[in-house]
Amino acid sequence: MSPTETQQWQRLAPVALVFLVIDGLQKFIRENLFYFLGAGAGFAFLDWLGPRELFLVVAAILLSFLAWAIIFHRRFRFRLEDDAIRVRRGLFQKRELRVRFARVQNIQLGRPFYFRPFGLVRFSLETPGAAEKEVELPGIPAELAEIMRDRVTGWQAGGMPDDPSTEQEDDSTGSELFHAGSGRLFLHGLSSNQIWVLAGLVGWLIGNFHDRLEDYYREIALVQWLSDAAGPVWLVVAGMIMVGLVILMLLSGLFSIVRFHDYRLSDCDDRLVGIGGLLDQREQTVKRDKITGLTLQQSALGRLLGCWYLIVRQTQSGDQELSDAQTRFLVPGLRRQDHGLTASVTPDWITPGLLKPISLHFRRIFWLRWLLVFVLVLVGLAFLFDREHWSLQITAAGMVLWMIGIQLRWRHWGWQADGDCIWVRQGFLGQQLDVFDLPLVQQVRVTRGPYQRRHDLANLQLILPQGAVTIPFVPMDDAAELANRALYAAETAVTHRV
């Protein structure tokens, strides 16, 4: 495709209508389903909804989204300029957006299964601080998408494109840093927090529709046989819950394989490229000078399985953490021995062996505060009920668990400063290890309460482009030194990642 052709106004392929309808339905369901059912309107709606009415409602919704997609498709235009991408879109009001190459921090190419026979891809760009994708072009030729990707990634900070003769023909030509097979991806799915999201959703549905489905349950021969054979109803319920959790865990592992199938992370000089996916193969490209930090994360179940995953941090808006997790640059299926991957991203980011713990006063003050609260609650309950009342036993057990939780929280806190590189660890049942450079700190906050002033301690909060990182209960001298070094490094840095 010649440069003249890429600079002309172009339209999306007709097959893009499929993506627009599917994407619109997903957003509609995700944003409105729980509000609709949670308000109770859904149950009243389903009481009179028969098969014929249900078919008409679904057909009306699909036709509405199809009409919206057709209008959006006809009004959508884009073109590639020398230093930017320009997009025209809008249903009732036309809007024009121009995104300069220098502002792009993340590039994604998606290849859904229904695009592959036509040689089409989904191309999207993210810019610093945007809560969602700045530019999304679903259904454009793969050749054009690769040209746009190479033009964006080849744009230098000085405002001149790289020499075309030095451009890589394919992002996969770089050296491979990491490869996650099906076994690792399955364990990643088992250890991810999406299990509990699925369990909560299933529990919510069962709880709300229990009365409606109770008669149906009684007609199932298996349930009757289990009730007669096992005896107590609670034992049958507990067994069914355990079986349900196992099924959800297996589904979560399979979903992880489908999402990250044959995942590979490659080093392509000044950028990182991650490729993976079965039904929708995703290629994510991030320039190294746009990386603001890394996070090694491990869930509670991941600690038992020895599973980690890596998140590449970039400049984000305040609510971007609540956006679609699939837009994050995430490397799944890591083990402990793969922590050296951080040094492959940035040579100075070498995982430390030991971290400095925070002060013991953190554990002591929170133990004393919550112990006082629980004692007062126990005394009040003792006046109201007998000593053997269940409320006292539950409160006492809760006190013990809460004290153990404070102990775990204190043990997970740690930090280490190695030159301009800062490592911070935190967690409860799981753990999270963050690394970033001091020149990236935008704001520093040092706070001290009366108890901390008495023991010469302070809380240090570092505001970064990707969010805030806090180190509580550190010696005041260390907090002041880190704060001064961060401010000095930020003011004197010649080059910045962002």
Could you walk me through the main structural features you see in this protein, from its secondary elements to its overall organization?
The protein has 498 residues and is an alpha+beta fold. The chain has 4 domains: 3-173, no CATH class; 184-260, no CATH class; 291-358 and 413-492, no CATH class; 361-410. Helix content is 45%, strand content 25%. It contains 15 helices and 20 strands. The chain has helices at residues 3-6, 16-38, 41-48, 51-75, 142-153, 182-191, 194-218, 221-230, 233-260, 300-305, 341-345, 361-384, 390-412, 450-454, 476-492; strands at residues 77-80, 84-89, 95-100, 106-112, 120-126, 135-141, 175-180, 263-268, 271-276, 280-287, 293-298, 308-313, 329-334, 356-357, 414-418, 421-427, 431-437, 443-447, 457-464, 467-475. The strands form 4 sheets. The protein has a 7-stranded antiparallel sheet, with helices on both faces. Strands 13-12-11-17-16-15-14 form a 7-stranded antiparallel sheet. A 3-stranded antiparallel sheet has the order 1-2-3. Strand 15 and strand 16 (421-427) form a beta hairpin. Residues 162-172, 318-324 and 494-498 have low confidence and may be disordered.
In quaternary terms, these chains amount to single chain
Number of domains: 4
- Please state the overall shape, judged from the principal axes of the Cα atoms: globular
Helix content: 40-55%
Strand content: 15-25%
Given as residue ranges, the uncertain stretches (5+ residues, pLDDT < 50) are: 162-172, 318-324, 494-498
Roughly how many Å is the radius of gyration? 27 Å
Mean pLDDT: 81
Order of strands across the widest beta sheet? Answer: 6-5-4-10-9-8-7
Largest sheet: 7 strands, antiparallel
Please provide the count of β strands: 20
Structural class: alpha+beta
Total helical segments:
15
What distance lies between the first and last C-alpha atoms, to the nearest angstrom? Answer: 32 Å
